[in-house]
Amino acid sequence: MRGPAVEVANLTATHQRHPAVHHVTARFEPGSLTAIVGPNGAGKTTLLRSIAGLHRIDSGRVAISGASPRLALLPQQSGMDRAFPILCLDVVMQGMWSKLGAFRSASAGDRDRAQAALEAVGLGGFARRPVGAMSAGQFQRLLFARLLVQDADLILLDEPFNAVDARTASDLLGVVRRWHGEGRTVMAVLHDMDLVREEFPHCLLLARECVASGPTAEVLSAANRLKARMMAEAWDETAPACAA
Ligand SMILES: Nc1ncnc2c1ncn2[C@@H]1O[C@H](COP(=O)(O)OP(=O)(O)OP(=O)(O)O)[C@@H](O)[C@H]1O
User: Fold this and answer.
1) Hey, which of 17, 40, 44 would you mutate to test ligand 1's pocket, going by the most ligand atoms within 8 Å of its Cβ?
2) What own/partner pairs with CB < 8 Å and gap ≥ 24 does 129-134 have?
3) Tell me, what's the pLDDT at 107?
4) Is residue 179 part of a domain?
5) Ligand 1 pocket, 41 CB below 6 A?
């Protein structure tokens, strides 16, 4: 497998007409593993959702190479409803909807695949457990199991290791490494700079605008990080979107 290249060209995306991502240009190579970093409010989630086609682009464009690349997004946990009464196995099976379509019901093989994904993230005994009865870390493992069955070429992760303990983070990082080894294109929004330096070969540093992108060690220089912080602090939250 070789994941797609992703090209972001002069992208501006707004919330209530105020720019959250401002004239960002970046390229993500096929099969690359990239961390998207920057201060709070730097536009990281908005960029990820724009790439996923879930946030309207005001100007510029996102181009994903390949005929019909499969894309999967792990949203931030804080934005998810866990009160919905659904069993863990059924959450994993949601990841198969594009293969099953609206009319085919799941086969025994599909259920076996979902069960195998649960086992791969250490939740082998959780198939019949309601999601409301899971801890935050277990729920994150469950969302990774759903990503596994999605079998996507392009995987977008929004703070995948947030609110999980070291053991869970390490297990889930193993899944990310596996995706990278399989040649999928992976991007992850992260705040842990040590983790980024150790595990992510490429990095995009955002402060609404692109501060730097490329090899992680170069991008995370002290000068670039200071620049990102100053740009974020100087940003006018009420600035209107400029003419494209
Ligand atoms: N639903 C929304 N409505 C209005 N403004 C929003 C909304 N979501 C985000 N914003 C604003 O857009 C800007 C960028 O937000 P975004 O969530 O993309 O940043 P982030 O870098 O992911 O932040 P964090 O690190 O805090 O998660 C912020 O100023 C934020 O307040």
Assistant:
1) 44
2) 129/87, 129/88, 130/85, 130/86, 130/87, 130/88, 131/82, 131/84, 131/86, 131/87, 131/88, 131/91, 132/82, 132/83, 132/84, 132/85, 134/82, 134/88
3) 82
4) no
5) yes
Amino acid in the structure at residue 106: A
Q: Is residue 8 part of a domain?
A: yes
- 35-48 per-position pLDDT tens digit: 999 999 999 999 99
Is 43 near ligand 1, meaning CB less than 6 Å away? yes
Distance 203 CA to ligand 1 centre (A): 20
pLDDT in tens, 92-111: 999 987 776 656 677 888 89
In terms of pTM, does the model score above 0.90? yes
Q: Counting beta carbons within 10 angstroms of the beta carbon of residue 124, is it exposed (0 to 12), middle (13 to 18) or buried (19 or more)?
A: exposed
Mean pLDDT, rounded, for 141-150: 95
42 Cα–ligand 1 center, Å: 7
In a domain, 168, yes or no: no
Atom 8 (ligand 1) nearest CA: 15
- Say if 55 falls within a structural domain: yes
Lowest mean pLDDT among 17-31, 77-91, 118-132, 142-156: 77-91
Our answer on whether the CB atom of 19 is closer than 6 Å to any ligand 1 atom is no
pLDDT confidence tier of residue 79, bands split at 50, 70 and 90: low
> For the chain, how many structural domains are there in total?
1
Task: Identify the CATH number of the domain in which residue 201 sits.
Answer: 3.40.50.300
The ipTM value here is: 0.96
Residue type, 19: P
Best residue among 46, 55, 76 to mutate for probing ligand 1, ranked by most atoms within 8 Å of CB? 46
Task: Please give the residue range of the domain that contains residue 212.
Answer: 1-70+190-244
Task: Name which residue sits closest to atom 31 of ligand 1, judged by CA.
Answer: 41
